[in-house]
Every structure is written in structure tokens, then in C-alpha cells.
Design a protein that fits this description.
The complex is a heterotrimer of chains A (509), B (243) and C (228). Chain A is an alpha/beta fold and 509 residues long. Chain A is built from 24 helices and 10 strands. Among the domains of chain A are: 281 residues, Rossmann fold, CATH 3.40.50; 28 residues. Chain A has a 6-stranded parallel beta sheet with strand order 1-10-7-4-2-3, with helices on both faces. In chain A, strands 8-5-6-9 form a 4-stranded mixed beta sheet. The radius of gyration of chain A is 28 Å and the shape is globular. Chain C is an alpha/beta fold and 228 residues long. A 6-stranded parallel beta sheet of chain C has the order 1-12-7-4-2-3, sandwiched between helices. Chain C has a 4-stranded mixed beta sheet with strand order 8-5-6-9. In chain C, strands 10-11 form a two-stranded antiparallel ribbon. The radius of gyration of chain C is 21 Å and the shape is globular. The chains are: A alpha/beta (509), B alpha/beta (243), C alpha/beta (228).
């Protein structure tokens, strides 16, 4: 069983999006943040003349890995074990949560500090640990904002992107004391002051933490090395100071060789935070006596990933390195934010990853999941910026087919069948056009029923008196048209007939 | 050169003016234009909505209808991209080698109108006259899938009387997206509202693009908002002359 | 069946379309480096872009430069890792240096972190002792010009990872000869078996409105002395 990586009770995307687009504060916060990061990304990506080659190599390395994933996983396991780590395998979220809880309990501790990790959000680890009497403290600034605000993450990289500085200040002032060191008196909403407040709030917790939980950005099969890419130093704190480190890592995070990192450590920072390099990157292999944790556990997680792998079109989603460039550039995400997607993985990548993890191919998914592949205008901006060239529009269309095959929507299916009947045959198309033209004076410019989805905000186009087809058949069919001149040169600007035609068509409307 | 015009079902039914403009323009540039009446639709709506397995008759119909022409010209970026990118995929899926061969034969001859004029005819000054302040919106499929690049603006810059102004945020989708416009009307409208705001902010009278589907959406919003702007297909501008 | 076997079996089933001897090609036609000349200048420029304080000094001026930096900072205690050249701290007053005894590869009891008497015997500073220090002085393994990055690999004079994490000020000595142009060139020189820390400017966050703000949990000031 694959527990859904979902926020329970979220309505389907169009409904959730409706309230999001009507929230001026949210719209303003998102517009500002996404445009800031877009510009930064474009600037640092533009610095590398070989970006296209790096991107192609990134995609190819991931494909190479996925195509022999079993071998690379076994190699990684052997290397981690040889370096003094312990490897666990978790088929689903429940098993991963059970393994982590047991490992924490074995230490005798009831608190853990956490590095920001998408995969532990996916499996609902904090909630599972809480049920076992273990409190998990998020240490990434944005995760802290979300945790203190009893909120849900809305972005892969910046989970509190939907909050502006004033809202963050309010949350800190209100909630920090409940969780530990309170916010300093007179806290302003200056970003530097807010960062300082977070530093003070978490300092003692880092220095005394005994157990940490992390994810990882990469796992090198050849050496057993794990890589965590971060900015604030909370990652280093968690990876270095505690005695026990538990890293939960999706099976798709493996890369074959140490040298492969030369591609990803160029692609990832420039695509995610728009920096040449993120402030801190930590790599570790097993345990190093006297430096960092003395117990290291790696939990390899499937949780639906093998289902994604089985879909030859959809498997490219497993290339994802969680940079979130696709979110930042997506015109839909910019206007709805992440909550509307109802999952820890929002935006374009979420719209292709979540339905697959939840098993859309089986034909049995809830309406919320089934709505996600349609949460895109297929504009292609996501594919353009993806550093590992995931053709997100291609996968979206592929998943729409799976939704349709799983039952789809009855009214839509009937409409599509009717359209096919018309469009498969030119004579039928002409007949329908003529009927529409004859009744065009009767057609309203606002449509009733399902048509209101269009015409509530947009005027309907006027139906012309004659289709192009009718015009052609009447005016041009016989005799065949005579080219005005054999010359490829455009005629002088003073030529008369075209202007005449222009006027005829005005009357023709 | 014998040019087959693929007008597209949307233009055929709702925007005959655009088709008439294409005919007039290409004939003025010395082409012999034909409209094979057996044509219908490229199947894009079905494909993009998840009914791609049902478009085989449309794919076959297109390949057969246009088999005999030197070039197939279409005034729609998204339909052009649909044919170029997805007809081969659809044919491959139909597991009919004959169909794949017919599709493979016709696809390289398919051009967007601006590609055909600039690349094949080698012309950027088409002798047009259009005395208005204009913004050009590069629709997503004409920009990202077809890669029209600066061809449309190169053509517009040669139009006499036309003042071309930059459209802020031009790379952003207008929010049409085919059935997206009705499946997600609120987001679609929010995207379109920003596009209209950017366009109106330039003081232009006209927004033009190489795709009437996007223009139907943008124009529908402009109409409701009483912006005083209008949308015009690029082909109609290029076909206009002084008179 | 164990979860290990179950997952591996599922992976193999999912890859039914892929030949077992699959050798998917990776074209490595990207650049090994984007700059050939001016590597050191670029390194300095990019360090400064990310708000590191940078000074270039001659080898024989290093003790004075260290002392001057400590003086400017007003630091009274500075952590020094094992293997740091004694000459670097020759200009400092007595008692300023807080030596940490840990060395990479030395044989330790595996419980060293947990047993105060062993920690004391090895001369290893506690985390709280690090927290009260005013700064840390280290060497570095590799510098990367294109990204403005310093890599520490726990080698001599660099110490364990906590040393450069807990104190609020990191003074780092980088030899010009160890500065390479690019990420690929740096990885060639680094040993994945050692714990590595890549540092690009002081601790920062982009979590508030996606704007970079320096100074969260790691050192809020990064000062680099580049030795020509």
C-alpha cells in the first residue's frame, strides 16, 4: 500500500485554485518571490556557455542510473556498509516511519532535529514520530515558519514562499516561546532580524541534539557518499553535531559515480536558488571517527517509485533533482501557490509525480489526484528550465490519457466523441458550420451551463456568416486561382485590390 | 510552388478572415495556394485532453489530404506544433507502418506561416501597411515548440506605418491552454488578466499573435474589460495594404 | 521476502523493457572549465559577490595578516585545528589559540563523542566550548573560482566539521595554488571517503521572499586570506 503523499481533504485543483487566485496577499507574495528567483536563475544559467550540454548530461546520467537501478542500489548499499553505515530498505511510508521510530527509540531519545527533506514530508514522518511520543524539530528557516505557523508547505525549496516578511514576524512573535527560545523583544520584519531570531531560537537545540533526521540530494553508488545541499547551516548542524544520523533517501537519488556530481553540483544550485553555488554542501561516507555522528543509518525508500519506473513515459519524472525551477517559472503555480496542488510536491513536477506515486495508472484515484494532470496550460516553460530535461508537458498529456482511461469525466467523454464525429469528416464539419452560421444571430455572448466556465470572464467569439470553407468553395474553387504575378517581389505599397478585400471581409462578419 | 493551406478547424469555423488574409498574402508573394476541402482538424484538442488514442483518423486524414503539396502552410503555431511533434507519435502508436510513412513524408513540409515566408520565400518585407501601435504576443507553442524566434517580429518591423512596442512578460502564457481554459477557468482568467494588463500598459491598440486560439481568449478578456484594445492575427496585419 | 528483495524485484519488473546489459550513453561534451586565465581574480570576485571578506597576502606576511584580522575582529579566543602551521599563529598573543586535537585518520575509540575522558585525553573541544569561541582559523583543501567556493576535507589544519560551523567567524587561509577554475576540476582533487564541506560565502537563506540574506546558523562572517 502506498499512503498518499497528500494533504487530506484538499478539494480538486480547480476548486482550490479558485480561492487561491482570489487572495491578494498570496498573489502578491508569490508574484514577487517567483519573479525574483526567475531573474536570478536566468542570470547565473546564462553565465555557463555549456548549459545545454550539462543539461543533456544530467538527464543522461539519471536515465543511465534508472535503467540499471537495481545494480546501483546494491552497489550503494555495499559501499555505505563498508564505510560503517547501516542500510535499511523501506517499501512504503509506513515501513520507513517504523524504521526511523525504532532507530530513535533505540537511542533512548524523544527528540530529533531535522534537516529540510521532501521525502520525510512525503511519508509524513513528523506525524508518525509524534504518535510514538517523539518530537521532531524542523530547523530549516522556511520549515520552521511552516511548523510554527501550523501551516502546510507550498514550495519544494521555500516551503513558506506564500508568507511575506510581516506574516513571518507575526508567527515568530506568537509561536516561538511555545517551542523553545522566544522571539527577541522588539523583533522587526527585516529579513536579517528574522534570520537572527531563528538562529537564537535553534542554537541550543542544535548544540544538545543527539539524533538527527535528514534526506539527501544525491547518493553516490560507487563510493557510498551522501550529499546534502543547503544554505543556512542547519543542515551542517544536523549532519555533524548529533551522535546518530538517520537519512531517508528515495531510491531514485542514486548517481553512479563521484565524478557525476560535477554535473549536478553545477545544475542544481543555479536552477534552485539562482546561485553559482549554495552556501553549504556536505558530503559524507559512512562514519568518520571523531568527526560527526558515530551511528549512521540510511533508509532507502520506494513508496511508489517503482510504479513510476514501470511507466516508460512517466519514468523521466524520477530524474527530478528537486530544484523547483519549474515551480518558479510556472504561470499556474505563480497564481495559485503550492497548497492548491494538495501535496508536498506542488507545481508542474508535482502534477506529474504525485498522480504517478498515487497510482493513476491503476485507474483508481480520487478526484483531487485526477485533477492534477490538468493543472497546466501546457505552455512548456517548465520543460524549458528543467535542468534534467523532464518533458513535463509530455508526461502531463500521458497522465491525462490514464485519467481518461480510468473513467475520466462522462460529459467530457461524450463531448469528445461528438467532436470526433464532426472532425473525422470534412462534410460533417461543413454542415455543422452552416447550422452555426444560420443561427449566429441567436447565439448569446454569454453561455449557459458548462459554457459559463468560458464566458463568465471572456466574451464568446462571434460566429461568422460564412466559414472559410464556404468562402473558398464559393469564391475560389473553380476556376483555380491565378497568381497575380510570377514575381516573388512584394508589390508596391499602393496596390489597390487587397484594401478592397479588407473591406469586403469587414462586411462579411 | 504548390502550397496547401491547412487553415485549422478553429480558423475555418470562427476566423475565416485569417484564412482569407493568408490566401491574399501568399498569392501576393507569388504562391499558388490551394485549400483542399477534405481537411478537418489536427487532433490537438483530443491529444492534449487525454483522448490521443482516438485521433488516428485525423492524423491519417491530414497526411492523405496534404500528400501532394510542395509545402503545407498553417496560420496556427499550436496546430503546426501538434502536427510536427505529435502526429509521428500518434502514428507510431497506431502500429500501422504505412501510416507512419505517410506522416513522415508530410511532416517536413509543414510550415508555420512566418517560417514559410521568412525561410522558404526568403522575404521579410511583404509590402504591408498597418498604421497602428501593436504588441506581439509570442504564443507558447509558436515560441517553445515551433521555435519561431524572431521571424514574426522581423516581418512586423517591415510593415509600413506599424509601431511595434515590446510586450512586458511576453514569454508568459496567456492562460488559454485549450481545454485548460474551461477546466481551470479561474487560473486561466488570472493569467489572461495579467497578459491584458501588460498589453494595455504599453498603450498599444492592437495585440497580435500567430494563433487565433490564444487571441480568442485574450480578445474575450479585453472585450469584457472594455480595454479599447483589439486582437488581430499576424496574418491579417501582413495582408493589409495601403489603399 | 524482505523489503530489500521486494524492492529490487519491483525495480527489475519495472525495467522489463530495458535490456539487462543496457549501457545508456552519457555525452560529456560540457566544459571541464569555463575560464582558462584569471582564475584567482575570478575566485576573489565571486567570494566577494557572496559577501566574504577577502585579503590577498604574501606567504611571509601571513602571520601579520592573521594577527591583524583577529585584531580587527576583536576576537579573544580562536579555535585552531591540529596540523595548522605554527607560523600562521605566531603573531597572536598567548592564550588566544584554542587548539583542537582531532586529526583525520587517527585511531579513536568509536565512542569518543560520548566519553568526556576520551575527549579530554585527545584534546578535543566540546561543542559548547566551540560555541563560546570567537572564531576559528583553518586551512582549506581546494578553492573553486567559478563558484566562489572553499572546500574543506578534514585535512591538516582544517579539523573536523564542527570547528568551522559553530563559531560565528571563520578565518580561512587559501593557498593560490589550490584554487582551481571549476567544479569538475575540484572533484578530481577531492577524496569522497573524507567528510567534505563546501562553503560559498557565509551562511545564508533565501527563505524570506526568495531574497538572499546572510547569516543564519553557520558562521555569519567568512574571511579569506589568499596566499600567493
Amino acid at each position: 500500500m502506498t499512503p498518499p503523499p497528500t494533504f487530506l481533504g484538499m478539494p480538486p485543483f480547480p476548486e482550490a485554485a479558485r480561492s487561491a487566485v482570489s487572495n491578494p496577499q498570496l498573489r502578491h507574495n508569490l508574484r514577487k518571490a517567483t519573479h525574483t528567483i526567475r531573474d536570478k536563475r536566468a542570470h547565473v544559467v546564462g553565465e555557463l556557455s555549456d548549459w545545454a550540454e550539462l543539461r543533456a548530461a544530467g538527464a543522461a546520467i539519471k536515465d543511465r542510473t534508472l535503467r540499471r537501478l537495481d545494480e546501483y542500489l546494491v552497489a550503494a548499499e555495499a559501499a555505505v556498509t563498508a564505510a560503517g553505515g547501516t542500510v535499511h530498505w523501506a517499501a512504503d511510508a509506513a515501513e520507513a516511519n517504523r524504521i526511523v521510530a525504532d532507530l530513535v527509540r533505540a537511542t533512548g531519545e524523544t527528540e530529533v532535529v531535522k534537516v529540510k527533506s521532501m521525502v520525510t514530508q512525503e511519508i509524513g514522518l513528523n506525524e508518525a514520530l509524534a504518535a510514538e511520543g517523539i518530537r521532531a524539530y524542523e530547523t530549516d528557516l522556511a520549515e520552521l515558519i511552516v511548523q510554527l505557523g501550523d501551516d502546510l508547505p507550498s514550495h519544494i525549496l521555500v516551503p513558506a514562499i506564500h508568507r511575506n516578511r510581516a506574516e513571518i514576524r507575526e508567527i515568530f512573535v506568537r509561536e516561538m516561546a511555545e517551542w523553545g527560545v522566544p522571539a527577541p523583544p522588539g523583533l522587526t520584519d527585516e529579513p536579517a532580524a528574522l534570520a537572527e531570531a531563528a538562529r537564537r531560537h535553534l542554537r541550543e537545540r542544535f548544540l544538545s541534539a543527539k539524533v538527527a533526521v535528514s534526506g539527501a540530494n544525491f547518493l553516490v553508488a560507487e563510493t557510498g557518499t551522501l550529499v546534502v545541499v543547503e544554505s543556512e547551516g542547519n543542515g551542517r548542524m544536523c549532519l555533524t553535531l548529533p551522535e546518530t544520523l538517520i537519512s531517508v533517501v528515495g531510491i531514485e537519488k542514486v548517481v553512479p559515480t563521484w565524478a557525476d556530481l560535477e554535473v549536478f553540483l553545477q545544475l542544481l544550485p543555479r536552477s534552485s536558488t539562482g546561485e553559482r553555488m549554495n552556501p553549504y554542501t556536505s558530503t559524507w561516507t559512512g562514519v568518520t571517527p571523531g568527526d560527526g555522528p558515530r551511528d549512521f543509518h540510511l533508509v532507502l525508500l520506494d513508496n511508489g517509485r517503482t510504479d513510476v519506473l514501470a511507466d516508460t513515459t512517466g519514468r523521466q519524472a524520477l530524474r527530478c533533482i528537486r530544484c523547483s525551477a519549474c515551480l518558479n517559472v510556472c504561470p499556474v503555480y505563480e497564481r495559485t501557490g503550492g497548497h492548491a496542488y494538495g501535496s508536498v510536491y506542488p507545481g508542474p513536477i508535482g502534477a506529474i509525480l504525485v498522480p504517478q506515486l498515487r497510482g493513476v495508472a491503476s485507474g483508481k484515484v480520487d478526484p483531487q489526484t485526477a485533477s492534477l494532470p490538468y493543472a497546466s496550460s501546457l505552455c512548456g516553460a517548465c520543460y524549458e528550465v528543467c535542468p534534467v530535461a523532464i518533458d513535463i508537458p509530455e508526461v502531463l498529456v500521458h497522465l491525462r490519457e490514464q485519467v481518461v482511461e480510468g473513467g475520466g469525466h462522462r460529459a467530457e467523454r461524450a463531448a469528445m466523441r461528438a467532436a470526433e464525429w464532426v472532425l473525422d469528416d470534412a462534410k460533417r464539419l461543413r454542415t455543422v458550420q452552416r447550422v452555426a452560421a444560420r443561427s449566429r444571430r441567436l447565439l448569446p455572448r454569454r453561455a449557459p451551463g458548462p459554457g459559463a466556465a468560458w464566458s463568465d470572464s471572456r466574451a464568446l467569439p462571434e460566429v461568422p456568416a460564412r466559414s472559410f470553407r464556404d468562402w473558398w468553395v464559393r469564391e475560389r474553387s473553380a476556376p483555380p486561382p491565378q497568381p497575380p504575378a510570377a514575381s516573388p517581389q512584394p508589390p508596391a505599397a499602393s496596390a489597390q485590390p487587397p484594401a478592397e478585400q479588407n473591406r469586403i471581409e469587414e462586411d462579411d462578419r | 510552388m504548390r502550397v496547401g493551406l491547412f487553415i485549422t478547424c478553429v480558423n475555418d469555423t470562427l476566423y475565416p478572415r485569417t484564412g482569407q488574409a493568408v490566401v491574399r498574402l501568399l498569392e501576393r508573394l507569388g504562391c499558388t495556394v490551394d485549400f483542399p476541402t477534405a481537411q478537418t482538424c489536427c487532433g490537438q484538442m483530443h491529444w492534449n485532453t487525454g483522448y490521443g488514442k482516438r485521433i488516428e483518423p485525423m492524423v491519417a486524414g491530414f497526411a492523405d489530404t496534404f500528400a501532394g503539396y510542395d509545402a503545407v502552410v498553417t496560420p496556427s503555431g499550436s496546430c503546426g506544433a501538434m502536427i510536427r511533434d505529435n502526429h509521428p507519435r500518434a502514428a507510431a502508436r497506431a502500429a500501422d507502418p504505412g501510416l507512419s510513412a505517410r506522416v513522415a513524408a508530410v511532416v517536413p513540409k509543414v510550415y508555420d506561416l512566418t517560417e514559410f515566408i521568412v525561410d522558404v520565400l526568403g522575404v521579410t518585407d511583404v509590402g504591408a501597411y498597418f498604421p497602428h501601435r501593436v504588441v506581439y504576443h509570442p504564443t507558447c507553442h509558436s515560441r517553445r515548440l515551433l521555435g519561431l524566434g524572431d521571424r514574426p517580429t522581423a516581418l512586423l518591423r517591415e510593415v509600413r506605418g506599424l509601431e511595434l512596442v515590446d510586450l512586458p512578460g511576453e514569454e508568459e502564457c496567456c492562460g488559454f491552454g485549450g481545454t485548460f481554459a474551461v477546466k481551470n477557468p479561474d487560473v486561466s482568467t488570472a493569467m489572461g488578466a495579467d497578459k491584458v494588463r501588460h498589453a494595455a500598459g504599453t498603450g498599444a491598440e492592437v495585440l497580435c499573435a500567430a494563433d487565433n486560439s490564444c487571441l480568442m481568449h485574450i480578445g474575450g478578456l479585453m472585450d469584457r474589460q472594455r480595454t479599447g484594445m483589439r486582437v488581430v492575427h499576424l496574418a491579417e496585419i501582413l495582408a493589409s495594404t495601403a489603399g | 521476502m524482505s523489503s530489500r528483495e521486494a524492492i529490487l524485484a519491483r525495480v527489475r519488473r519495472a525495467l522489463a523493457d530495458v535490456p539487462r546489459d543496457d549501457d545508456f550513453p552519457v555525452a560529456r561534451d560540457y566544459a571541464r572549465a569555463h575560464v582558462a586565465e584569471g582564475v584567482l581574480e575570478l575566485f576573489v570576485e565571486h567570494l566577494r559577490d557572496y559577501r566574504a571578506v577577502v585579503h590577498e597576502v604574501a606567504e611571509d606576511a601571513l602571520p601579520d595578516a592573521v594577527a591583524a584580522a583577529v585584531g580587527r575582529r576583536g576576537a579573544r579566543t580562536v579555535v585552531t585545528p591540529a596540523g595548522l602551521p605554527a607560523a600562521w599563529t605566531a603573531g597572536l598573543a598567548e592564550g588566544v589559540c584554542l587548539a583542537d586535537g582531532w586529526e583525520y585518520g587517527q585511531l579513536y575509540e568509536d565512542s569518543i563523542n560520548n566519553r568526556p575522558e576520551l575527549v579530554e585525553a585527545a584534546g578535543i573541544l566540546t561543542t559548547h566550548a566551540l560555541d563560546t569561541a570567537d572564531g576559528v582559523l583553518t586551512a582549506a583543501a581546494v578553492g573553486i573560482a567559478e563558484t566562489g567556493t572553499i572546500v574543506l576535507d578534514a585535512g591538516p589544519g582544517q579539523g573536523r566539521r564542527a570547528l568551522t560551523l559553530v563559531p560565528d567567524w571563520h578565518l580561512c587561509v587559501m593557498r593560490a595554488a589550490d584554487v582551481v577554475a571549476s567544479v569538475p576540476r575540484a572533484l578530481e582533487r577531492l577524496d569522497p571517503g573524507r567528510p567534505l564541506t563546501w562553503i560559498s560565502g557565509p551562511s545564508a537563506t533565501s527563505d524570506i521572499e526568495l531574497n538572499r540574506v546572510e547569516g543564519v546558523h553557520g558562521p555569519r562572517t567568512l574571511e579569506v586570506l589568499i596566499v600567493r
